[in-house]
Structures are given as C-alpha cells and as structure tokens.
Amino acid sequence: MAKLMVNQAALERLKGSQTWAAFAEDIGIDKGTLSRIRHGESQPGPQFIAKIVTAYPVRLDEIIEVAA
Question: What whole-number distance in Å separates Cα of residue 44 and Cα of residue 4?
C-alpha cells in the first residue's frame, strides 16, 4: 500500500534557520504533529499539506512523496 511521506530535504529548506517549533507555529500546526510527520510516524494529511503550500511558495510535488 502506498504511503505519503514528507520530502525531508525540502522541509529542511523551508524551515531554514528557525527551530522546528517555530516552523510548526509558522504553518499553524502542533509541534508534536510536525515531529510525527517528519519521523514517518504519521502521514501528512490534507490539512498539513494545505498549510505548507499556503504558508510557503512550494509545489505539492516538491514537499510530498509517495512511497510504495
């Protein structure tokens, strides 16, 4: 079954020099949720994806990957 994953390199670029907590606040999600998504414990859902592409100038295919 396919699984959605965050492109870690793209996420790091978006985060820049700020902390992960500050990045989570910038996009409007809980830092624990961001941590679980970053570590592959949770899949990025539609709400997370919408918040990323709204907060930053990034295309969906740059930030989300499909793993088999």
Answer: 6
> What residues contact residue 10 under an 8 Å CB cut-off, 6+ apart?
58, 62, 63
pTM to 2 decimals?
0.84
Please state which CATH class domain 3-67 belongs to. mainly alpha
Domain boundaries, the chain: 3-67
CB-based contact 45:35 (threshold 8 Å):
no
Sign of the dihedral defined by the CA atoms of residues 6, 50, 29, 56, in that order: positive
pLDDT digits (tens, 9 = 90+) for 7-59: 999 999 999 999 999 999 999 999 999 999 999 899 999 999 999 999 999 99
Q: Can you give the pLDDT at residue 1?
A: 80
